[in-house]
């Protein structure tokens, strides 16, 4: 029952993939410019779809309001195309304003009120860049009101047959508190409650464990404490690559839980329109910390965990080239994470998005000191990753055992080699950008200040030059894991080993020519954007080679349906969907319509969770016996796989449609008029269920460590060198350096 005909399974799986691929392009109503008619909620497209940092929208409103009173509200626009009106050019600006409470009223003929409550300019107000209207407050002045405005900066060249070229827009929001708003400076925020709860839980578990040891062993408190202290010091000062790998895994998994809690908090906020579960500030911080946590504090440590534990074993080395440097690179990780999260305890965590776009991160609008701590922590993480890259590249190139040539290395080690190559080229660029940002915020430099001649677009280039290769830094090890697992549980060598290596290397090279697709809406040379579009689509070729080679391996093999194999198959299916939607976003016209909508959120999570996290889970189930000497429970594993796959797709697939319906990402709320509240409700419910389903792997890891079936040294009949040593391996990994022998016909 553990096996089935490989050919039949392969045909069935290919058919499933084909069906998924055909339906992965979501359907939705096509709207002009790709945005909803509710401009104030979704953006403006009547004068082009490009936002521009140089266009400034200002909302002038009272400092506070009294219930039922009327006030003048002014929207003004500056920057962008030339203000002067020349022959054939008769328009310079326009706006759209919405408020979540009270009513707007037109006070002159240059403004008009639409049926949905949105205030906009009239035809007679086209030649202005400032408009004034009346606003009557609601009867409740114990709440804070939010004004949201979108403004067009228009060059007026449509009369010359040039259409909307050169037109730009931007947005602004302003919060006005009522006079009876209660502000309690001593109130504990939601995020602080979570941090305190986690700390209290940890202290409680530690105290219970300590007390149990005292009572159960009948030893004194001093004896038990001394034993705990010796045990802790053994891990604190270790330079053993295997122990450091375990430390990386525990740290990464801890931050995975923290990032997941933040994600669930955001989903609760978006469950209903105009929800107030989180304030705008709390939501912005949660969004920033969620992205930062998942990418830099969870996924990156997970890679380091697998790489630390397995690479020396797979190439026949006793340890990494620089063991002490390896320990330093690890301890920079929790130091950076604590620094970043310290913002919550210092008045508010960073709220600049996980991309840290200037001028949000460089200007006065950014929360301080939370943003300062975010930048400082990120610099620590950048140093950690750079050191790690140097260590692994040296180890792989110089410390391979006899017979382990480059073209005989396991594909997982190859994936780490390509990943650290990307890391060494990309991470220093991002670190330099962070140092420049730190200088702007601390020393008053002006690298990203437009008024002083700086350029916020420079930040985007520096970030995405790192940011998109970062996706491949994360996904390459997952590809390597899938390659090992598929070959082992298909009971045959991977199909087209050389092609798989070339595909890995090709993805690594091409990934540095694609960062510009994140900046299609930021302007730029048309030729550059066209080249980036083509190279982005080109990445699909080597990626497709890997997918088809996996399927060929499965088709020709005898499948063993263990949990590790199930997660690899699930990762192939979900990553394929993420890849298809990535090709959609690589098209400039489609990206202009879908950029900054939830379609991008869906695509990103299908890659990050569907491809990377599921790949990592496959690796956990596959190598857990090597680390602990025990097998994980298959019933709990299958339950984890089934629930994760179901709830993941139910949570994230509808986000494609939400994006097509006009919902922008990174917003803490949305208008009921968009018609997406029901979809958001179900997305939030299934996201919560997906989060809860991860308790299966937590329970499995703990249960199997104590009561799991003994695995033996090679429970899967794997061929690579990590399986020739004991499970778990000894301190120096090998009693003697092994030699990889190859058959004559190879």
Which architecture of the largest domain does the CATH hierarchy give at level 2? Up-down Bundle
What is the CA-CA span between the terminal residues? Answer: 33 Å
Count the E strands.
11
Q: How many helices in DSSP terms?
A: 20
- Quick one: biggest sheet? 5 strands, antiparallel
The CATH superfamily of the largest domain appears as: Cytochrome c oxidase-like, subunit I domain
Outline, from the CA principal axes?
Answer: globular
Question: What radius of gyration results from the CA coordinates?
Answer: 28 Å
- Class per helix and strand makeup: alpha+beta
Q: Strand order across the biggest sheet?
A: 6-7-4-9-10
CATH class of the largest domain: Mainly Alpha
- How much helix, percentage-wise, in residues? 40-55%
**CATH fold type of the largest domain:** Cytochrome C Oxidase, Chain A
Strand content is: 5-15%
- What is the count of structural domains? 2
Write down the overall mean pLDDT.
85
Runs with pLDDT <50, length 5+? Answer: 18-45, 83-90
